[in-house]
Design brief:
6 helices; Rossmann fold; 7-stranded mixed sheet; alpha/beta; 41% helix; 191 residues
């Protein structure tokens, strides 16, 4: 009987260690030489959608702007103004903007930073009786004086997770997965 008790404790400890080992946070780059205190106003460029889910880029961009506004860390340029300025540079993807174009956009919008993003994964799949939604974002802020990236974060949210797979449940809706993914990325910028 005592051996069964120790086996259960050992099994529970192993499960906790596995769960902690599977937990991942965002991958983050921060330029240590850049002083973020000078960033007062930023523009958020509509996120590129690299998934087959039409509209994913627009949905994530709106959630990202709302979360950034809630943090009250920067003044945010209205999305319509950003679109108006971007029309001057007819590129397929905003990642194709040159350093000179980034500087020109910064001057036109009077911003110190421009935030670009990619939705690289937006999936819904069935796992047993539950729907599993996964979102992956790659976001970066470029300072407008030199066009250099000063912050970048890659974050994934959703998925089944260890405890959800083991005990069932714990599923996130697509909206919850998007909000969690955005919030995890924004927290790496706003400390």
């Amino acid at each position: 009987m005592q051996a069964v008790k120790y086996f259960r404790i050992l099994l529970a400890a192993a499960a906790v260690l596995v769960a902690l080992g599977c937990a991942r946070g965002p991958t983050v780059f921060i330029n240590d030489e850049y002083n973020f205190q000078y960033v007062e106003r930023v523009a958020v460029v509509p996120f590129d959608n690299l998934t087959s889910d039409q509209g994913a880029g627009n949905r994530v961009t709106r959630v990202f702007i709302a979360d950034l506004l809630a943090e009250k860390a920067f003044d945010i340029v209205e999305p319509g103004e950003v679109s108006r300025v971007l029309e001057k540079f007819s590129t397929v993807r905003t990642s194709q903007l040159t350093q000179e174009q980034i500087t020109a956009i910064g001057q036109d919008l009077k911003v110190q930073g421009i935030i670009f993003g990619n939705v690289t994964e937006m999936t819904s799949s069935r796992s047993g009786s539950a729907m599993v939604n996964t979102v992956t974002l790659v976001i970066r802020m470029v300072e407008t004086e030199t066009g250099a990236t000063v912050w970048s974060a890659t974050n994934t949210s959703g998925g089944r997770g260890f405890w959800g797979a083991l005990f069932g449940g714990g599923d996130k809706s697509e909206s919850e997965a998007i909000r969690d993914c955005v919030k995890g990325a924004v927290k790496t910028l706003i400390k």
